[in-house]
């Protein structure tokens, strides 16, 4: 780290969060998040659509949670899973967007090492739980359409509670080793993260020692969790569509296609953005950095914005209750 950089940080932040160990290494106690590299002059404009999407995500998912929680007739498996998804969406975008907007409005922002690891843990854990909820919802639709007579006996309240605990446990078990692998690294070159939030490989790439183990674990964990979730969701909807084609009523087929089509669009958006961002960060060395950063933000914000519209508005019971809560014109 050169003296010019130290002077700039002192002028902007009033202090420098590093601890000198010896002449050749420095142990950082904070990371500097810079935002979107190359687009610093446009970040105030980028913040406008991101702010709007965040507002829609929080309000939309909040309405879904409030409606389902307040109406006991909606305490059924499909709506309970939808509530889990809505709660997860609010937490997922809230873990990143407020800090991102602060950077867009005020410039680079310091984040303590502990805060950075906490944000990293929350982002990856909530992403995994989002994938698990989507899988649970796909299974719910599979049973409802392909085995309707067994729906009430299979999807009991007890099972739904266990599913909720299982998806939280899976997220914690999978993400915790990633955090521990970060803790073993030595950061001695720079503490500047060219990103809007603390992300696993974004932090790891600042280390002086080898991050091969971090990269292998991250790739393996992603493939064995979200990768398998995606495969099982695809299998569920393939079985659903096969059953729908066999329905004798054209109206029933149309209704089922409408519901499944909306769900499939959301799932494709979630997994396409996520996996494209994941693999380009590891292997897309020629992709512009600002494109990677924007994509990494979009895959955490677009699904929470779309989910209440697709799953909530297109669900008749929720749509009717939301409209009932809105003030009616005289």
What does the model show?
The protein has 330 residues and is mainly alpha-helical. Helices cover 73% and strands 5% of the residues. It is built from twelve helices and five strands. The strands form two sheets. Strands 4-3-5 form a three-stranded mixed beta sheet. A hairpin with a 5-residue loop joins strand 1 and strand 2. Helix 3 runs antiparallel to helix 11.
How many strands? 5
Spans with pLDDT under 50 lasting ≥5 residues?
Answer: 1-26
Order of helices and strands: HEEEHHHEHHHEHHHHH
From the alpha-carbon coordinates, what is the Rg to the nearest angstrom? 22 Å
How does the helix and strand content classify structurally? mainly alpha
How much of the sequence is in beta strands? under 5%
What is the straight-line distance between the termini?
Answer: 66 Å
User: Which term fits the overall shape?
Assistant: globular
């Amino acid at each position: 780290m050169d003296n010019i950089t130290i002077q700039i940080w002192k002028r902007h932040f009033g202090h420098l969060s590093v601890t000198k160990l010896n002449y050749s290494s420095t142990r950082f106690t904070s990371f500097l998040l810079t935002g979107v590299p190359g687009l610093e002059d446009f970040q105030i404009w980028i913040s406008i659509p991101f702010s709007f999407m965040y507002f829609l995500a929080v309000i939309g998912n909040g309405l879904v949670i409030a409606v389902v929680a307040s109406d006991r007739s909606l305490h059924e498996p499909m709506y309970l899973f939808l509530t889990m998804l809505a709660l997860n969406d609010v937490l997922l975008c809230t873990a990143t967007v407020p800090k991102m907007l602060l950077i867009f409005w005020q410039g680079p922002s310091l984040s303590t090492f502990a805060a950075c690891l906490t944000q990293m843990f929350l982002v990856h854990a909530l992403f995994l739980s989002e994938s698990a909820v989507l899988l649970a919802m796909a299974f719910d639709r599979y049973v409802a359409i392909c085995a309707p007579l067994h729906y009430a006996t299979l999807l009991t309240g007890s099972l739904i509670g266990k599913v909720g605990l299982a998806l939280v446990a899976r997220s914690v078990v999978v993400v915790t080793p990633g955090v521990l692998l970060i803790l073993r690294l030595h950061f001695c070159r720079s503490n500047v993260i060219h990103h809007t939030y603390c992300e696993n490989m974004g932090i790891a790439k600042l280390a002086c020692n080898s991050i091969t183990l971090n990269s292998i674990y991250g790739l393996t964990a992603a493939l064995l969790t979200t990768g398998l979730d995606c495969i099982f969701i695809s299998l569920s909807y393939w079985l659903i569509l096969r059953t729908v084609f066999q329905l004798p009523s054209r109206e029933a087929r149309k209704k089922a296609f409408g519901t499944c089509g909306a769900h499939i669009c959301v799932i494709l958006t979630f997994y396409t953005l996520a996996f494209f961002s994941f693999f380009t960060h590891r292997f897309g060395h020629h992709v512009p950095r600002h494109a990677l950063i924007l994509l990494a933000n979009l895959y955490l914000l677009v699904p929470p914005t779309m989910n209440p519209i697709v799953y909530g508005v297109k669900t008749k019971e929720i749509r009717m209750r939301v409209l009932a809560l809105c003030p009616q014109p005289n």
